[in-house]
Amino acid sequence: MQNCKRKRGVRKHAVKAAVDNIDLTKAGSSIRLEIHAAGDKIGTVEIGFGSFALVRPIQAKPKRIPWSKLAAWMEEL
């Protein structure tokens, strides 16, 4: 058998994470993920106690999605 090394592709995306509060079970605490592609910020995902929020760079207000709606979307996949 030949010793074949797996070729790695070029990274396209980078994610930076920020945690507001260690105790994520309380309201007001969240995890914020900034998503970058090719050096450009393509959006932010905020996962909180009550909802999941998406923010695009050109969007002023975050789009909040309740956990029940997110669960329904995941069931469809």
What would you say this structure looks like, in words?
With 77 residues, the chain is mainly β. It has one domain. The protein is 13% helix and 43% strand. It is built from one helix and five strands, in the order βββββα. The chain has a five-stranded antiparallel sheet with strand order 1-2-3-4-5. Strand 2 and strand 3 (40-48) form a beta hairpin. The mean pLDDT is 81.
Main β-sheet description: 5 strands, antiparallel
Strand-residue proportion: 35-45%
- Helix fraction by DSSP (H/I, runs of at least 4): 10-25%
Count of individual domains = 1
Number of helices: 1
The first-to-last residue Cα distance is: 40 Å
Instruction: Give the topology string: H per helix, E per strand.
Output: EEEEEH
Order of strands, main sheet, comes to 1-2-3-4-5
- Identify the quaternary structure here: single chain
Q: Would you count the extended β strands for me?
A: 5
Kindly report the average pLDDT value.
81
CA-based shape:
extended
